[in-house]
């Protein structure tokens, strides 16, 4: 099978890669297509043919919101289904790159076209920048047929879009995949196509000594449809606080999805290890296994946006859809 790319869509959303200096600091800047074409003239080939599209407004990815995930997903899906591209290279700021990669992994679960994200720690053209190596390295990875699904190319490495996090703000190897000991069980059921139908409100609550019922109730009152609890260790929390547990139980009874991941970068949720874990499970929490915060948030968002009810969201959240659940 010839996997080479004939029609690559480069989708530029902003980020350091194309930023220019302003009085207030680095800011996103237009005109990146011309700079890319000039730079490509000196790059060794073969490189795919590409077209360029800017998503407006260009953003520092610190300003990305879930509605931007939906816009990126819609733009990519439209281009792919209209036959305008056979691969997508998404240029994005690094601060929330892992969140967008995770959300797109689920919003585009059914898409055959590979989607590769990249960005840079230093702007293109600045001394010693990683921008051109990341960008043209990503193009070469696509051209070589190395990309399936949603992936991130950074500092010479291909990373899983739903397993990656930004771990450093001061080095070119800023991204890493969550460690995994084994893959999650293969799901025999056909996963749902997650086409966005409605808005979704997902809130993350890291547990910390002092967290209590008041925080849970406030978040539920703010309109959260899903609460992603970042538990301790293997999925524990203050289950000895009867008021806290009751607030969770009530929220669950009102239809709020209660999902758990671990604050530890390595390991996974296993409620049965401690009584402080099984107490949370009994209140209605479901396990996100070894999912990252980015993956769990993007997955809950995509499941809720697709219009699934509480029971269906809980069902699919616990199942591996694209390699995100490995622990
Ligand atoms: N703040 C920038 C952004 O996320 C950082 C970067 O791109 O590296 O857009």
From TrEMBL:
InterPro entries: Asp/glu_Ase-like_sf, Asparaginase/glutaminase-like, Asparaginase/glutaminase_AS1, Asparaginase/glutaminase_AS2, Asparaginase_C, L-asparaginase_C, L-asparaginase_I, L-asparaginase_N. Residues 7-186 form the L-asparaginase N-terminal domain. The active site is at 16, 94. Residues 202-317 form the Asparaginase/glutaminase C-terminal domain. Pfam families: Asparaginase (PF00710), Asparaginase_C (PF17763). PROSITE patterns: ASN_GLN_ASE_1, ASN_GLN_ASE_2, ASN_GLN_ASE_3. Belongs to the asparaginase 1 family. This is Asparaginase.
């Amino acid at each position: 099978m010839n996997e080479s790319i004939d029609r690559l869509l480069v989708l530029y959303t902003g980020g350091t890669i194309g930023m220019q200096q302003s009085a207030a600091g680095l800011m996103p800047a237009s005109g990146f297509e011309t700079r890319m074409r000039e730079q490509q003239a000196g790059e060794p080939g073969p490189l795919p043919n590409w077209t360029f599209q800017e998503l407006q407004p260009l953003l520092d990815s610190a300003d990305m919101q879930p509605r931007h995930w939906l816009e990126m997903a819609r733009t990519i899906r439209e281009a792919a289904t209209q036959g305008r591209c056979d691969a997508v290279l998404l240029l994005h700021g690094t601060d929330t790159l892992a969140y967008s990669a995770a959300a797109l992994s689920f919003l585009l679960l059914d898409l055959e076209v590979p989607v590769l994200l990249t960005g840079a720690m230093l702007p293109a053209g600045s001394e010693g920048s990683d921008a051109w190596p990341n960008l043209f390295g990503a193009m070469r990875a696509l051209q070589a047929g190395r990309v399936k699904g949603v992936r991130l190319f950074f500092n010479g490495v291909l990373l899983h879009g739903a397993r990656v996090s930004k771990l450093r703000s001061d080095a070119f190897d800023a991204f890493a995949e969550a460690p995994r000991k084994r893959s999650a069980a293969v799901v025999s059921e056909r996963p749902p196509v997650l086409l966005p139908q409605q808005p979704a409100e997902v809130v993350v609550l890291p547990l910390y000594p002092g967290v209590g019922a008041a925080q849970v109730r406030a978040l539920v009152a703010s309109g959260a449809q899903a609460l992603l609890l970042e538990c301790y260790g293997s999925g524990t929390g203050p289950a000895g606080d009867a008021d806290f547990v009751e607030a969770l139980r009530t929220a669950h009874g009102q239809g709020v999805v209660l999902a758990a991941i671990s604050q530890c970068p390595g390991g996974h949720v296993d409620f049965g290890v401690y009584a402080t874990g099984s107490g949370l499970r009994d209140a209605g929490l479901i396990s996100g296994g070894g999912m990252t915060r980015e993956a769990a948030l993007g997955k809950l968002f995509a499941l809720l946006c697709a219009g699934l009810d509480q029971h269906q969201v809980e069902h699919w959240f616990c199942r591996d859809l694209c390699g995100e659940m490995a622990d």
